[in-house]
Design goal:
It is a single chain. The chain has ten helices and ten strands. By secondary structure, it is of the alpha/beta class. It folds into two domains: 199 residues, Rossmann fold (3-Layer(aba) Sandwich), CATH 3.40.50; 70 residues, no CATH class. Helix 3 crosses helix 4, helix 4 packs across helix 5 and helix 5 runs parallel beside helix 6.
């Protein structure tokens, strides 16, 4: 029996931003990047700031300039989708941003925020109210949250609202752009568990962007590592996050904080040893 095609397939993607000067070459943020995500699967995309990981998420969402390559979603090429096609895609492709406060309209109640995408798609007010109640229950917020403003909630609760909004239209794929990096560690764990539970309940797929290997290990089936716009390592989450093969991934693992002070001290010593080795090799 043949395997089903991936839900998302990115092939040889190149993203370039125009240069500021006439004689300056465009900045290539992504160079020949290829990834795929199956139905109900999470691909963790990890790399340091400037690696291109957020750019890849934005390219999938149609927010970055694709110079070449393709983005196939549910069998349809979407790398250059127009506004009308993007509006139609919003039923199946959604996003959760890093900052839960700036991504929510502060002048609207939570109920109005969650009902907005439903209204755009023509859902009646009665059905929208029922769906809002269902969404609040799914992200474990009280039903009276619908009548309150975003500023009345903590950061973790606001991110739950953002997740509920992304779920409103029952999408097939959610791009999660550093969705827990602005939260404290205990809140991070609860929100990550929520992502996992939602996936079990709905079968939604995630492209989970993060700079933290520990975070992607918690939620991902597979992990792809980006360095300077290129994929340098990809494989099962357990293997990549525990036994990385590429030197860059190894450095990311050593940079991840651990709660045990002795283990953290050993990591720092090992990292310092690697730095000394690199300096000796350069000379």
């Amino acid at each position: 029996m043949s395997e089903s095609p991936p839900l998302l397939s990115v092939d040889s993607l190149v993203v370039e931003y125009p240069a500021k000067g006439i004689l300056t070459r465009p900045f290539r943020a992504l160079d020949q990047v290829s990834i795929s995500i199956g139905t109900g699967e999470t691909l963790g995309l990890v790399g340091e700031s400037g690696s291109g990981k957020t750019t890849l998420g934005r390219a999938v969402l149609g927010l970055a300039p694709v110079a070449s390559g393709s983005v196939m979603f549910a069998g349809t090429e979407i790398s250059h989708a127009g506004r009308r096609q993007r509006r139609s895609l919003s039923r199946e492709l959604q996003v959760v941003f890093q900052d839960p406060y700036s991504s929510l309209n502060p002048s609207l109640t939570v109920g109005e925020i969650l009902a907005e995408p439903l209204s755009v798609q023509g859902v009646s007010k009665v059905d929208a109210r029922a769906r809002v109640k269902e969404l609040l229950d799914k992200v474990r917020l009280p039903s009276d949250a619908a009548n309150r403003l975003p500023r009345e909630f903590s950061g973790g609760q606001r991110q739950r609202v953002a997740i509920a909004r992304a779920l409103a239209l029952s999408p097939k794929l959610i791009v999660c752009d550093e969705p827990v990096s602005a939260l404290d560690l205990s809140t991070q764990a609860k929100v990550l568990d929520l992502f996992l539970q939602i996936q079990r309940d709905t079968g939604v797929s995630y492209l989970f962007v993060s700079h933290d290997l520990d975070v992607v290990r918690h939620v991902s089936h597979r992990v792809a590592v980006l360095y300077r716009g290129e994929i340098v390592e990809e494989g099962p989450a357990t293997r990549v996050t525990e036994r990385p093969e590429h030197p860059y991934t190894q450095r990311l693992l050593l940079a991840s904080p651990v709660p045990d002070p002795d283990a953290q001290a050993q990591r720092r010593a090992h990292r310092k040893g690697l730095a000394v080795q690199r300096q000796e090799q350069e000379h």
